[in-house]
Design a protein that fits this description.
With about 200 residues, the protein is of the alpha/beta class. The chain has helices at about 20-30, 40-55, 70-80, 105-135, 160-180, 195-200, and strands at about 10, 35-40, 60, 85-90, 140-145, 185-190.
Length: about 200
């Protein structure tokens, strides 16, 4: 039986890229109304347009999730459009590539700001909405991790690997703290849109 997300509202961050767009289109195909977020407005609109052509409901939302105020605007605009939020997929990421001896401080910090702080902002803010408004139905938060081996990341990806290791630990903390509110939190590898759908549709 095909999973269904009828009447559910989802936000997918970083949905202009390959992984995010696949997740957004998969959730929309299951009936969810999807807010397609990307820092690049053209990428967000391209994905949203593809979802509309498939006959599903979506909005394109430009926001840098490393900025708390832009996160608030993304969330509030989604609520104004559809009345609530049931699903959050923290997919946005940056992946600077440089050896540790040559890593620029700005690139390191930007990686953590997007990959980890952005997930914190969105999880905290959406979590508050879910706690206040969703009552018995709770919600789902999914953090997209990495397919690389955290124990031995490829040369040049130290910042990315460290940020994703932090995201994995943050996911576990969220799962523990949010469980009492009926909010399920998961961490998944990239390129697993069907797994995201399965987790979102679980009772």
């Amino acid at each position: 039986m095909k999973p269904t997300l009828e009447n559910k509202v989802a936000i997918v961050t970083g949905a202009g890229g390959e992984t995010g767009s696949a997740i957004a289109r998969t959730l929309a195909g299951a009936g969810a109304r999807v807010a397609v977020n990307d820092i690049n407005p053209d990428r967000a609109e391209r994905v949203a347009a593809a979802i509309r052509r498939d006959g599903y409901e979506t909005i394109a939302m430009t926001a840098d999730i490393a900025n708390r105020f832009q996160c608030v605007n993304l969330i509030e605009s989604t609520r104004e459009q559809w009345g609530g939020i049931d699903i959050l997929v923290n997919n946005a990421e940056v992946r600077p590539s440089a050896p540790i001896l040559k890593m620029d401080e700005w690139a390191w910090q930007r990686c953590f700001d997007v990959n980890l702080k952005g997930a914190f902002f969105m999880s905290q803010l959406v979590g508050r909405v879910m706690v206040d408004e969703n009552r018995e139905r709770g919600g789902v938060i999914i953090n997209v991790g990495t397919a690389i081996d955290d124990d031995l990341p490829p040369p040049g990806l130290s910042a990315y690997a460290a940020s994703k290791a932090g995201l994995a630990a943050f996911s576990e903390a969220c799962a523990h703290e949010f469980d009492r509110y009926g909010i399920r939190v998961y961490s998944v590898e990239p390129d697993t849109a069907d797994e995201v759908l399965r987790l979102c549709s679980e009772a």
